[in-house]
Design goal:
218 residues; alpha/beta; D-Maltodextrin-Binding Protein, domain 2; binds adenosine-5'-triphosphate; binds 1-O-pyrophosphono-5-O-phosphono-alpha-D-ribofuranose; ATP_PRibTrfase_HisG_short; nucleotide-binding; transferase; EC 2.4.2.17; ATP_PRibTrfase_CS
């Protein structure tokens, strides 16, 4: 039996994803050891390998088959646009992708003006403004603290994740338009899904059952 490789997104989703896998009997305690510099971990009994990587790299590992399975946010899946199967919504890391900015920007959006949009998600922003709204905009790619852009006059609005709304509120910004709901998903390499159908389907089934039972309070 060959090893199945599982890629997990570093950061906010990692601990919750590992907890979820543990609930269905898939454990990898070693990966939680933050002091370790080791990159790949094994569960020899289950013939599974695990690694943590930057969220935006997970779809790349999965499309190329370097990982058979990945756990990553829908935002990253949409942004990276890789070929792979999205098989399950884990209901973790729930948040929204939104257009946000100062209240005064609302009329610029309504009038379809040529505005500047700062974002960590240029592909999602392009798809939203060009394909869904048919509005021409200038996209400015940033890598973090996106809320700074409209405050400092770099852009009129931003496209970013909103969870509690605290960051927007504390910086005098508001949600202007909702783009889509986001949560963590399980993704699978297309060839692995065929070659390792039995084992991968069993993981999907166990996760679905656990999530359904949790939802129904049992
Ligand atoms: N408040 C939130 N802010 C950002 N991401 C969130 C939030 N709530 C849930 N998420 C989800 O968690 C995922 C991981 O977020 P995290 O901040 O750890 O990494 P990242 O910002 O994508 O990576 P990096 O910090 O390396 O750029 C996001 O892709 C998203 O799906
Ligand atoms: O609605 P809230 O609960 O305030 O969460 C949303 C904020 O969290 C994320 O930033 P993150 O902490 O990942 O930092 P970053 O801006 O450097 O990406 C996101 O980009 C927002 O700024």
């Amino acid at each position: 039996m060959r090893y199945i490789t599982i890629a997990l997104a570093k950061g906010r989703l990692a601990a919750d994803t590992l907890d979820l896998l543990e609930q269905i009997g898939i454990s990898c305690d070693e990966i939680r050891d933050k002091s370790s510099r080791k990159l790949i971990f094994e569960n020899k009994e289950l013939k599974l390998k695990f690694f943590l990587a930057k969220a935006s790299d997970i779809p790349t590992y999965v499309e190329y088959g370097a990982a058979d399975i990945g756990f990553v946010g829908k935002d990253t899946i949409l942004e990276e646009g890789r070929k792979m199967y999205e098989v399950l919504d884990l209901g973790l890391g729930k948040c929204k992708m939104c257009v946000a900015g100062p209240e005064s920007a609302e009329k610029l959006l309504q009038h379809g003006e040529l505005i500047r949009v700062a974002t960590k998600y240029p592909n999602i922003a392009k798809d939203y403004f060009y394909n869904k709204k048919h509005q021409t905009v200038e996209i400015i790619k940033l890598n973090g603290s996106i809320e700074l852009a409209p405050i400092l006059g770099l852009s009129e609005v931003i496209v970013d994740i909103v969870e509690t709304g605290k960051t927007l509120k504390e910086n005098g910004l508001v949600v202007l338009e909702d783009i889509c709901d986001i949560s963590a998903r399980m993704v699978v390499n297309e060839v692995s899904m065929k070659m390792e159908h039995e084992r991968i389907s069993a993981i999907i089934k166990d996760l679905k059952e656990y999530l359904n039972n949790k939802k129904n309070g049992s």
